[in-house]
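Throughout our pipeline, every protein is held as a single compact record rather than as scattered files. The remainder of this section carries one protein's record, kept here as part of the documentation.

===
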Amino acid sequence: MKFEELNVNPAIIQGLKELGISKPTLIQEKAIPLIHSGKDVIGRSNTGSGKTLAFGVPILEKVKPREGIQVLILAPVRELAVQIAQELKKFGKYMDFQVATVFGGVALGPQVDEMAASEIVVGTPGRVLDHLNRRNMDFTKINCFVLDEADKMVEMGFIEDVEEILNFTPEGRQVLLFGATVSEEIGQIKEKYMSNPVIAQAAEHVAESFLEQYYYDIKQHEKFSLLVHLLKKEKTDRAIIFCSARTTVEMVNKNLRTQGIKSEMIHGKLSQNKRLHVIERFNAGKVDLLVASAVAARGLDIKDVTHVFNYDVSQDPQEYVHRVGRTARAGEKGKAITLLSERDHGSFNNVFRLYPDLDIKELHEATFPKIKFETGGHQRNFGGPRRSGYSGDRSSHGSGARGHSSGNRGPRRSNSGSGRSHSSGNFGSRN
């Protein structure tokens, strides 16, 4: 199918063609006609599936130039708000509209001026609500409300703000919710603010034939050493290393730099300008290795990633899918590698309970150089606290991979002589 078959405005099609986009993704193919028809829509698909175009294309077609704010798009983080606005400008370059970005950490005045000349506002809930309470924006002409990464809004505790913002919008406006899942809290918005919504759902955007997934089951203090070894062995072109905590992001990035490995980091405590600068540098190819917290895993358009490393496993099993979804895009191959220590076993098991069909193979590394890991001014051997029983190089491990399709999802330590405390001893047990 082509965009022409979806009755997309020729001016938008021209903009898309200049971006190298000629065919809609599955979520675009399903959502665009529904939004064209004026229906309230719940769009369910994962990061990288093309959700911005799915709601952005029909929105631009409905906007009337110079008739005030007609569209409000809410995003959970500032980077995503900026990205959405940029994407609208790119594929809508031949359309007559203005878009304002509204988020915290910067002065209010310039945003007020920008909104006064715009038909579309893209913002984060806190700052939008701040402007509304100050009477800095007029929502009386809003005819379309979009909640992007709705599940992330729930996770970050923004739902009350979202509901308050919705109460400022006129009755009869079109409501569009997009995200990977629909939680109970999102269900409440559906019941209170949507009129007979229809669901546009797309399958997973990452084809398993393009994404290789592996894990190493190792001791905590070996993680950093193995990471450095793999970064060199894999010959990564562009990689993201995901960590679950800000402090871990900072320590891993610092120690990589100590090893002469050029990396930059992104997490929620960095300033807005710094975070945007880092993402721009990564997308421009000025830095090839990004150490990131979950803020970079969801929604953001981070391009051409060949490898994803999970330095640890998030307690949220859905986060695994969002992380690995940063690679193997647009028909390109990618590899996701998880460094699994004992403290990660429970969280990793939860991934398989939620996604029982995932094919993640176990790998072993016979030997690798041990590297000092500095934490808060102190050095710990080999990347973390030393555990009893460590006996140097893991020479008794061979190399190779085991596929989970055989039903063998539990990592084994051939040199340990003792089992682990898992009820089945296997990851992904369906009992």
